[in-house]
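Good morning,

Both structures are done.
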Amino acid sequence: MSHRLRFLCSALFVLGSSVAAPNRLLAQVRKSCGPGLALKLSAGVTPQGSLILADITSAKPLPDLTAEWDGKPTPLWKEGSATRTLHALLGVDLEKAPGKYEWKISWNGPEGKAMTCSASVTVRKGQFRTESLKVDNQFVQPDVQQQKRAEEDQKKMKAIYDTVTPERLWEGKFRLPLKGVTTGGNFGRRRILNGQPRSPHAGVDFPAASGTPVFAAQSGKVVLAEELYYSGNTVVIDHGYGIYTMYAHLSEIGVKPGQDVAVSREIGKVGATGRVTGPHLHWGLTIEHARVNGMDIVQRWP
């Protein structure tokens, strides 16, 4: 009984909940923007909580471009100084309203004329499981002190995600944070506690024994390394351009805020701190505030 009362992100790894890449993206989109300039999106129709890879290619030297996803600036980067391809990552939040959204690029054409080109993406409702749990009211209605601490944690995390480092801090493909694993579960799971809908699960859970080493999914800068109310011992890494990874419920933290870390560096160990049912790693991916399935960035990197 007690394990049901200690709810949060690992609450049940039910049969079929572990998936390598749920909500697969659909057909690519290619859009000509004039002679030699084109857009490519990895999907024109995609579910909530997914990641879209976007490219801009040019037969000529690239003009000075800016990009927007749903009206907000989108960072662009090159994989080499000589390339004529720009890349972007478009995060579709797991609660983004279904509908049609636009990725648009802008530049100055001949004689300074303002030019634009866009491609649309249709967001569909994600197929997420729902589970109902009966728990002690203290886990649905925290006391005054607990609520205050949780709210302070939320403000701290918002301030982190509001910050977009204007450079790329990673190099190459992202990797899973545990060695020897290929699947994770529970991303996007909806929970109803004592009849009250709660926030969806915004990360991927990896069940593992306490003390299992946890590694940085890519290089970056540690921006948080401390105990939080819900997520326990937590590390957040800034990878630049609004991309953050989160590692929660750790038994030990092995890094400090402000520290630069390389890909696959050990940053802590799996634990059961915070509100959990047992040892596991909660791994979150946030791109420009969009909570995205982390499996996508590992399996669909350009």
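Second structure follows.
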Amino acid sequence: MGRGMNGTTRHRAERLLRWYPRDWRARYGEEFTELLVAELEERPRSLSRSVDVARSGLIARLAVAGLAGQPLEPDGSGRRSLATLAAALSIFSVVALALWAQLTIGWQWAPPATRATSLAMVVMSVGILVVVALCLLATVPVAWLAVRSIAPRWRHLLGPIGLVVGGLVVLVVGTHHFANGWPGTRGHPWADQGIVPGGVAAYAWASTLFVTSYWLHPAALAQFPGGEVAWMLVSPVAVGAVIVGATRIVRRVDLSPRVVRYERTLGLVAAVTTAIFFTGAALWVVDGGPGPRNLFHIGSIDVVELAALALLVVVAGRAACRVRSGTPPTARA
């Protein structure tokens, strides 16, 4: 009986340990598990203990991501912060494009009914353009260093580079094909319609088709063409491959202090720009109106996207600021 009870207690301790990141568990997991087992045997039920373990585990995960505290490997904290910044800006770009693409459809057909929506379109268009441009500028030196490092370190870099290239190929081919079905095509001309290039909006729409509330309505989703549904399943995988590959490259490539400073500067500018874009999006979601023929309708998915953007703005800003406190990445053995 006692042996079975101890096994159950150990299982509970190991479940609590999962709050901590893998690297932390590998170094301290065995010792911490024994402490938890002893604590659980003495006090089987304790909400405050569970909350404390969860809180400490999340802080440890934030440290691994370069967002808080001190990671287990201080020398790599700058690299981790840069990787988190790259991931946050990449995800922000996807969500922002999805929100912007929805607004552009109504914009092609008729002028919005409120000034808030008009201002939102201008702010969001400028914001997403700047964020994408900054991401491209930040990619150039890292991509060049990755290519240069392939020969001596191909085992570390070939996989991430393959993810990025493969994901981009799928996205380019699929987006080009499905952009032809953009709902804004042949919209009614009006004075300020030209602020949004139709081709750009169509590509943004096609690349973010998977960001939709239709996933919660299978019956409605089943009415979509089979190819479009397949693309909605494949495209997020391709986007994920690009983001995962890019963050792994940032964490594995040797970056000089000069490149780190360059990336941090671009990151800070990008973080500020994401906040500006968020402000424009909030104008539309909070104060905008449906407009003529309900073209600018705001749905629950827009509120969810706005909340996601707010979180990503905070993460990007935090990561950009933390790059300064981290030691520049050193060569990996």
